[in-house]
Amino acid sequence: MPVLSSRRNGADGQVLDLDTAVKDGVLGGGGGGGGGVGFGGGFAEKLDLKKMIEELDLPEIPSVFICPISLETMEDPVTLCTGQTYERSNILKWFSLGHFTCPTTMQELWDDSVTPNTTLHRLIHTWFSQKYFQKKKKSEDIQGVTSEILDTLKKIKGQARIQSLKELRRLVAGHDIARKTVVDKGGVSLLSSLLGPYTSHAIGSEVISILVHLNLDSSSKSNLTQPAKISLMVDILNEGSIETKINCTQLLKLLIVEDDFNFQIDLLSSPSLLVALMRLVRDKRHPTGNLPALKLLKSICSCSCSHSQSQSQKQIRLMIITIGAVPQLIELLPGLNSESLELALFILDSVSNLKEGKVALSDCSSTIPNLVRILMKVSENCTKYALSILWSVCKLSPQEYSLIAIDVGLAAKLLLVIQSSCNASIKQQSVELLKLCSLNYSDSIFMSKCKLTRTIQ
């Protein structure tokens, strides 16, 4: 069997360079003897290998540590008479299935015993121990630096405060331990106190970029929903960089999921917020802002729709219509990806329940053609929303809008939906819409309008 062959330091038998040992492919063939691979004080043996493997979850592991059967790191490597090494449980399972060959070489075994590969085990243990303690030290360093920054923020102002916030943002964006430290050390309350009517946009942008990465409890969210803080967020959303706008949007979305609807009405009925979100949705230079803005708009519509009896919440949807969101969203539909498309259709469907929404949809010449194109080409949810919007528009003036819908191929599309594997409610929607559209035609003319060639064209 192969034995460990490596650079040694005199007579103590210790591997000088573990990485070199792994790179050179040196691994023990089994048996005991020889000084184990370890370092300073033998602490490696005190750490649980399985726990280290799970906690580290490293993307790259030396190939000599990997079991050829499971392709996972070996915790109890054993070597066969062929010289090949496997995880003990894996090779024993191989034997239990009636195989008496080496899985790698397929040689028949002249000896079915397995020998613990203690040298390789120590090599694996030491390598993971080094990585584990490096990570632990790094975490402790990050935790210490984060705590220092929080203490410093209490004492400094101006440009020095901005620089400290930038460093804190970098830490929380990249490290779980930094995020946890900020929360545990009362950093959320400290950061929230920096937001107010006299906060500069430079400070506010940094604070928001930190808060959006944190796990905020209900008390923290309540603190952040004070009018002065929300007003600052909306101002920054209108004037900040694309990164800052996205951070503001994501933070606001986190805040409106609370059950305090009195707060939500004050926030969501802000024309400045809605205008800023629509500007972000249609910003072709920075398409990364499209999805978070649509998600927040959907949350706003969901909130207002779930309490439709309230005049205040109805006012929110009216404001979405008033700022011109309907024609803007309709024009964007063909270029949206599937996730954004579903969000946009949800928003349009929510406002189509109002008379003003129906009028805004019918006044846009692209509404019916763009919605017809969507049918059968997207998810069931998109199809459901598109059918609901089409129904609202066609019902507004059946004679006028049904004719337009049929001329752009709606009838053929509806027949395809009815014959598809869609759920029953969507099929029923299609049947009802088809009936509505057929009222303006004789049977023969309507059937000619339903030719599937129209859909293909």
What does this structure look like?
The chain is mainly α and 457 residues long. It folds into four domains: 18-133, Zinc/RING finger domain, C3HC4 (zinc finger) (Herpes Virus-1, 2-Layer Sandwich), CATH 3.30.40; 154-238; 256-367; 397-457, no CATH class. Helices cover 63% and strands 2% of the residues. The chain has 25 helices and three strands. The protein has a three-stranded antiparallel sheet with strand order 2-1-3. Strand 1 and strand 2 form a beta hairpin. It is flat. It starts with 17 loop residues before the first helix and ends with a helix. The model is unreliable at 1-18, 25-45 and 452-457 (pLDDT under 50).
Give the end-to-end Cα distance, rounded to a whole number of Å.
71 Å
Strand content bin: under 5%
Look up the CATH topology of the largest domain.
Herpes Virus-1
Coarse morphology: flat
What is the helix content? 55-70%
Average pLDDT works out at 82
Largest sheet: 3 strands, antiparallel
Strand arrangement within the widest β-sheet reads 2-1-3
Tally of DSSP helical segments: 25
In the CATH scheme, the class of the largest domain would be: Alpha Beta
The CATH homologous superfamily of the largest domain: Zinc/RING finger domain, C3HC4 (zinc finger)
